[in-house]
């Protein structure tokens, strides 16, 4: 890579934040919706319609025209949807939900990425919300974060859990441990999707999750099949399970803590017992242009969500599993055709067996 | 453009902010400098050196490795500079100055782009600095903005003014009006670079600029050749000049105000008098991949700097000049070989003659 090419790439990076916000703002202002309803509006008419000066409308639409998202007719000054007109509404909604999360939960906070990495704490979350803890804890307290996150989580959950349970076999009557199962909704789903005589799902999490989890079990009528055990995931996980589920968070811990969690999972199983991990995973070839996880997750996790952790490649997880008394037996990724082109996370299911 | 390609492009936009901050943070943390001094450090040694956990070092360097900026040896776990090692220090410094400005003056503020466009005011500057006015006004009051802007301005000034004055002929003894010349340093430079018997440069700006401008004239020993006139640029510009200079701000006004400023310039000249405008200009083909101004300036100006204005193409300026009694006679751009690949602004000099 020549110095010239390197500096040109820096320029691409420099316009990353402005490109993002310019695109999102065209949606927020309602410019895209107006053009969908009324193709051929001029900047003056669009400005009137959304309450913005025509000069600003023209400026913000320049990038949309440059990208081919919107078309502009020089002669008449009329705008209409180009590529944006062809994208299905559900696809746009999903992409906008993710962009909304980036805006609310990340854009300002990542200003403090360097300080967050230095201190191992989310300095941005502290500065803007006076909050100590993770983004997910903050979502429980701050409505704007909860809204931006919830919209996304809802869309993602349907998308991910359906596929996850399709690929998960749980033998009849299994005793399942849902490790760090939070509010218990994952345990409930596990019971419902895999119900069999004697199947029991135990949600293990911090004691303060107990009340909400038990309430959810009752409200969903599964209190006979799901239970809660509270404690510290590093030290208090009980034994006596056939299968341990680790869903959605292994990437949020540094190596030492991942190993402790895997050790806890190991202690919960007999030799031959199963561990199933659902997590986003870096591609083996990190230059894969279809995978943008490396471009996103370090700043998301370290600067905005947890101040620690990070995705790993499968070989890293394999070696960590072996170090923890497991053998990785199978890795299942989604069919690429089922992953929307705007999706950043690429989740895998890793199946492992306790060997020692 | 297919819906799939459009959504994939959205993903590129979504990773824009994180990419930017991840790259900058690698410099801020000192990772790049350490690798320059000590090629072959592992994540553990790098982490020790800069006071950061090795897990975080690994995560932040993933993107550098993906881009080919940094090399990683799987066997030994050693990092070394790849493409970044080949970039001259002065080039890196210039790019980092720009990135620093984006971080301090834009990254948080652009969260409020939509509100800024709706209200015609810089909502982000108000929220984060409790400041009413432009980014340039705020730089006078807030040290972090001044520092991030000043570092950039210094690098840019040398770069731009040398070229500007090389291309500017000022006949001996001319009476020059430096319209909105601010602190007078541009007037001083004009006098120095183009000195001739009888050459006089008048800085016209708001009355509150008078003291600083006159002090600068005295300190540079040009008080006999440079003077200050205070007033409103829309209404109070005096007549009697041979040449009017408009440097660096025409893009910061909406159309109506640009026309008023051009009218003021017109009133300052006799027919045949010269107007010289220095401004960044959009390319005629807005899809030109070597030009990133459209990706940057709308959000910069509307969300972060002025809450109005925007770059235009040359034909737009030509028509606005004609509407204001000028004929555009010549447009000079920098030799592309003299524009660094990381540079976003592309400035042009537009020469016009008063026709009516």
Automatic annotation (TrEMBL), chains A, B:
Protein's name according to its UniProt entry: 16S rRNA G1207 methylase RsmC
Lineage: Bacteria, Bacillati, Actinomycetota, Actinomycetes, Micromonosporales
PANTHER family: O-METHYLTRANSFERASE
Cross-referenced PROSITE patterns: SAM_OMT_II (PS51683)
Keyword Protein transport appears in the UniProt entry: no
CDD domains: AdoMet_MTases
GO molecular function annotation: O-methyltransferase activity; protein dimerization activity
Pfam families given in the database record: Methyltransf_2 (PF00891)
The entry's keywords: Methyltransferase, S-adenosyl-L-methionine, Transferase
One Gene Ontology biological process: methylation
Keyword Methyltransferase set for record: yes
Domain O-methyltransferase C-terminal, residue spans: 135-326
SUPFAM superfamilies noted in UniProt: S-adenosyl-L-methionine-dependent methyltransferases, Winged helix' DNA-binding domain
Signal peptide coordinates: none
InterPro entries, per the entry: COMT-like, COMT_C, SAM-dependent_MTases_sf, WH-like_DNA-bd_sf, WH_DNA-bd_sf
Gene3D superfamilies cross-referenced by the UniProt entry: 1.20.58.1390, Vaccinia Virus protein VP39, Winged helix-like DNA-binding domain superfamily/Winged helix DNA-binding domain
Domain of life of the organism encoding this protein: Bacteria
Protein source organism: Micromonospora rifamycinica
